[in-house]
Specification:
CATH topology of the largest domain: Alpha-Beta Plaits
Strand order of the largest sheet: 1-5-4-3-2
Oligomer: single chain
Domain PucR C-terminal helix-turn-helix: 443-501
Domain Purine catabolism PurC-like: 15-121
Number of strands: 15
Shape: globular
Organism: Actinomadura fulvescens
Pfam families: HTH_30 (PF13556), PucR (PF07905)
Structural class: alpha/beta
Number of helices: 19
Protein name: PucR family transcriptional regulator ligand-binding domain-containing protein
Largest sheet: 5 strands, mixed
Distance between the termini: 56 Å
Number of domains: 4
């Protein structure tokens, strides 16, 4: 069976690749092609890849060492770099590749990464009669996952589905029962992404992980209905290769507009885009109506990448999506062309399913409502930001809030400029916080408990596990330091709002 190699790639007619390091190219098989602009793509590499990059990750010379070390450590066979972003291949990248023994190829500006991917695919499948070759050839020819899935379903003589980690059906050969994809994904994640057989809606399904490169934060899966006793490990592995080819093609397609989308959303967030300029960028991205906004935050390693994956998997396959880099208060922002109410429902389901695959991590998200979308992208993004902060005020591991659902005083706090919030907080409870900091007197905690229990001394004392006289003493100090009378309802409201501002600021 033919084997695509770096040597063969360089010698291929019409590609014009130039060898910058590793003149004696190793005769190693290029297992697959992975396109990335992440500063550290190592978690998505399994070894044997030709890594292609447009160098968007490079901000300073030291970035080259970090990127190349990560790629070499994971066993990539070579690095292909395009100079369009920087105008040249930087010398620090060449030096880093020489240090790590990683062959570096310069990709001409008129040769797309998709062309290199197609060459590797063609060499892998030429004259190949095996299943993997047939599946790869079918996805390369059709550009859709339905083709390789149909081939596999015909071989197994069983209906099959490919489902993403958020419960989205990427390809199917039959209809699933109501809520089938959601139920299948939930059961799969609860099993840790391991192979298993489940019964859903009166049918049995064999679930097998699909681990393409690049891998998402949690696994794609193959579902086969009414499975027999045959081993699905090898068929799932072959289908994963076809899925990887499809994802690589989709990633390259998204990269063509991602920079434009980032510029749009960042500009609106930073308030340095006029309404006219924003409208022109929206039109360039294919938007035909006013967008809604989404803000997502995920805790833990690569949280920004996981948040971006959630948004792109849910909305990216639809028309017109712009996703900003996750560099605004720890959240990833997006403008999407979608129905506000339907998007909230789907995001809530997707976040819950992805959260089930990421135990110990927290997913919070916010969406703009119908009214904000009518106003424009700036108002929509602000409302999505505030809605996400409201979601973060709770303790649930996965929380999604829509601007249409906000009907509490928190929306007023969210609309206040930060400086106004700070002055309001400091004017009312600043002395309490300062006193607590010096004496550990727990005055703020006691005030919060007192107000939470509607002014009941006994319940407040029981909640804090102290004597009621201790509560009385502390609250007298609260009145002395704030100049407020806790027996007056207006003063209680003011202090309650100041405490809500504290909660709001802590949730940012």
């Amino acid at each position: 069976m033919p084997r695509p190699t770096l040597r063969g790639l360089v010698r291929a007619e019409g590609l014009g690749l130039r060898v910058l390091t590793g003149a004696e190219l190793p005769d190693r098989t290029v297992r697959w092609v992975f396109t990335t602009d992440l500063p550290d793509p190592s978690r998505y590499l399994a070894g044997g890849e030709l890594v292609l990059t447009g160098l968007m990750w490079r901000r300073e010379p030291g970035d080259s060492e970090r990127f190349v070390a990560a790629v070499a450590r994971r066993g990539a066979v070579g690095l292909g770099a395009g100079a369009a972003a920087l105008g040249e291949i930087p010398p620090d990248l060449v030096a880093a590749c020489e240090r790590h023994g990683l062959p570096l190829l310069e990709v001409p500006a008129d040769v797309s990464f998709a062309t290199l991917t197609r060459w590797v695919t063609a060499e892998s499948t030429r004259d190949a009669g095996d299943r993997r070759g047939a599946l790869l050839a079918s996805v390369a020819a059709s550009g859709a996952l339905s083709a390789p899935l149909a081939l596999l379903a015909a071989e197994l003589d069983r209906p099959c589905w490919i489902i993403s980690p958020t419960g989205r059906t990427l390809a199917a050969t039959d209809e699933l029962p109501a809520q089938g994809a959601e139920a299948i994904t939930r059961r799969f994640h609860r099993a840790g992404g391991e192979p298993r057989t489940v019964s859903i809606g009166g049918s049995r399904f064999a679930l097998r992980p699909l681990l393409p490169a690049p891998k998402p934060p949690a696994g794609y899966l193959l579902a086969v209905r009414d499975p027999d006793d045959r081993d699905l490990t090898v068929p799932a592995g072959d289908l994963a290769a076809a899925l990887g080819a499809h994802l690589a093609r989709e990633a390259e397609r998204a990269n063509a507009t991602r920079a434009l989308g980032d510029r749009l959303v960042r500009g609106v967030l930073d308030d340095d885009r006029t309404a006219r300029a924003a409208g022109e960028l929206l039109a360039d991205l294919g938007f035909t109506r006013r967008p809604i906004a989404v803000a997502v935050s995920v805790t833990g390693p690569d949280g920004a990448a996981v948040a971006r994956f959630l948004i792109e998997d849910l909305f990216g396959h639809r028309t017109g999506v712009a996703v900003a880099a996750a560099d605004r208060g720890g959240a990833t922002f997006a403008l999407v062309e979608d129905d506000a109410r339907d998007a909230a429902r789907r995001l809530r389901t997707a976040a819950r399913l992805l959260g089930a695959a990421l135990p110990g991590r927290r997913v919070t998200a916010g969406l703009s409502g119908v009214a904000a979308a009518r106003s424009g992208p700036r108002e929509a993004l602000q409302e999505a930001r505030n809605a996400r902060r409201l979601a973060a005020l709770g303790s649930d591991p996965v929380a999604v809030t829509s601007g249409d659902e906000v009907d509490s005083v928190d929306v007023l706090i969210a609309a206040m400029p930060r400086g106004v919030r700070q002055r309001f907080r400091e004017g009312l409870i600043g002395r309490l916080e300062e006193y607590d900091g010096k004496h550990e007197a727990r005055l703020v905690e006691t005030l919060a408990a007192f107000l939470a229990h509607s002014g009941s001394w006994q319940r407040c004392a029981a909640d804090l596990h102290v004597h009621v006289n201790t509560v009385r003493y502390r609250l007298r100090r609260v009145e002395e330091l704030t100049g407020r009378d806790l027996g007056r309802f207006p003063d209680r409201v003011d202090l309650f709002l100041a405490l809500r501002v504290v909660d709001w600021e802590n949730a940012r």
